[in-house]
């Protein structure tokens, strides 16, 4: 018998508890450290006029304007529009797999969706740059690097996450009510529509929240596809910049000025938003249990 | 098959370079010889116009002496200044002169190695053959939004600009746009290379690149009747001109000094010229 | 209403695989024709590069090596830490500790990867200002940040794998007079190994594909094969990102698509192995077969 990983059993085969505890403590502290660093480095932001400057609508560093509100709005617009697309689609896929489609097609469909989770983000980005962007440019106006291009690609990226969560929820509900519903004469589609969907409300909300967290946190898709203009988009064909791509773009500028502070402020906002999403999820899970 | 080919091309390179050395007995040999027996690393970051020259030099040096490692990262001139200033890299490239503040703050030393122009460029399919400086300013400010207004076809103009760290952007903004507004609806790309590939794929786009980056995938319309070529940049008839610099923190030492000397030497000059710049 | 639902479900279920197929077809169409040894090794003889470490220019080889080094390092950091934390959480923690730990793991799982990169970057800034003025971004820093990124996967799969071990095994151990620590080390962990291994493989895939973390912590476009823990390096996902924006020649574009195919094969392959392991695990406990 081989001991696992780094937790080396002592001679009598017992695991050294203190070592395990140390590992657990390090893992727990990691999250605290990340938060502390972001907070510490964005402290200069909270001094006096810096905050007012950051919380404004213009990003023009050459003129001393460092507003990150356009990026905040950009992140929000992009993530919600991607969800608006991905969520119904995911729901459709799950309904298909749980009664609205032929039983035999369910397994390969879900397998394909699961495989999608293993496609690297940067590969989605690459394909969209050379397939989707020219299509959008030719079909509409603008350069093609736009909110629309990023939203479409991002929805493909978050779709599997949502499908897998909703699928798990449907499974659970149907295991509970399936037999009785069938006995009552519900057809599979009726069962979906009248019972499974309404009973899965909380699971759906959780999938939505998790999808939002993933969409807000993604960097590569907006960086490669959204055009990165630092202003509020007026249409789906306008470019936009998200907080994540703002961090990637600005990370290396001069370390003294406000551009730098804006970097960590963006990071802090992102952290708080994603942490909030996950706390919400925890709460729901706690109530469900 | 491929192996044989590359062996052959290696032999060919040897023969060719032997020929070169025959004509310039001092140059190449002395240049690379300064790296013989040395080892260590050189990290380079910053200006993206410099990258073709840096890569060519890195390749040549590392092939002649595999125990030297040279890494080349992009980022733009602002990144070059900051990274070399903070000691994160050995050489920070800029496509603009350092400001007094930057020199004072970090104790930087600059080595200019090439002259380069910055030109407004469009896709080769774009029929517009010339623009005035005022037209360029108004296009970038977002006042002219259709190619028809400047003699092109009836299509919306897609404006591309560079990020804040770009030296190319600074020179273009200062010398051609006269520090005017760049519309914030412009798409932002992160390097000369990225600008080039974005414009090459978009028939209605306009942007700006270092003249060294212009090839047949891009078209540079005449500016006030003057074609943006390196010759016109040298003679001063084309006004939007800058030098390309390598910067070090303090006096360069060891390998870094050898690298800078190599770029400034005859072989470096040939590489600079091959990349489309005018060696100094 | 029912008709509409059925119609919509069909629509979605045709569309999603169609998107996936389009993606794969496009990748193959653009990636395969340019496939050659030169794509990986440039003009360096491949055998020289592989066996003698001759420097490769204009090829994917250094980026492949960089990704392998990065993933190995990140795994070496994250796996012991993750498994040990998972074991502690599942078997030894007091209820309060367990709640605190699962809270932290949940938060950690939610942190976007770009923030892990920003954390690494800030860490270097701090180190340079205080104890280590020569600290710099590089391979080890990236690996450390990637390790943090995949840590939550490892902790939760370890915990789940331990929890899914049949209760009888635990009882059997106790009946034999083993201490709790011995039961965990000698019985539960070996029994849960397959499940844990599946988690490890998924974590490896995640570490191999992430771009945002390394973007901020030391990856560069041209570095050659990785040579030291603290040096800059190349990596496949960054190479794809870089070439997608910066390609200058059709050959470079072909290289980007080839790199994408290579990366997809790596992550897809790892994913398949993880699924197989999981399937194996499920049948094992269902049939009661043991090894």
Structure description:
- The complex is a heterotrimer of chains A (289), B (280) and C (291).
- Chain A has helices spanning 17-42, 49-54, 69-100, 103-116, 121-139, 147-183, 188-199, 201-217, 220-225, 243-250, 258-288, and strands spanning 59-60, 65-66.
- Chain A is mostly helical.
- Chain A has one domain (41-288): MetI-like (MetI-like fold), CATH 1.10.3720.
- In chain A, strands 1-2 form a two-stranded antiparallel ribbon.
- In chain A, strand 1 (59-60) and strand 2 form a beta hairpin.
- Helix content of chain B is 40%, strand content 22%.
- Chain B folds into two domains: 11-114 and 244-279, 3-Layer(aba) Sandwich (D-Maltodextrin-Binding Protein, domain 2); 117-241, Periplasmic binding protein-like II (D-Maltodextrin-Binding Protein, domain 2).
- The termini of chain B are far apart.
- In chain B, strands 1, 2, 3, 4, 6, 7, 8, 10 and 11 form a nine-stranded mixed β-sheet that branches. In chain B, strands 5-9 form a two-stranded parallel ribbon.
- With 280 residues, chain B is of the alpha/beta class.
- In chain B, helix 3 (51-64) crosses helix 11 (266-274) and helix 10 packs across helix 11.
- In chain B, strand 1, helix 3 (51-64) and strand 2 (68-75) form a beta-alpha-beta unit.
- Chain C is mainly α and 291 residues long.
- Chain C has one domain (59-290): MetI-like (MetI-like fold, Orthogonal Bundle).
- Chain C is built from twelve helices and no strands.
- In chain C, helix 5 crosses helix 7 (139-163) and helix 11 runs antiparallel to helix 12.
- Chain C is globular and about 70 Å long.
- The interface between A and C is large, with 95 and 93 residues.
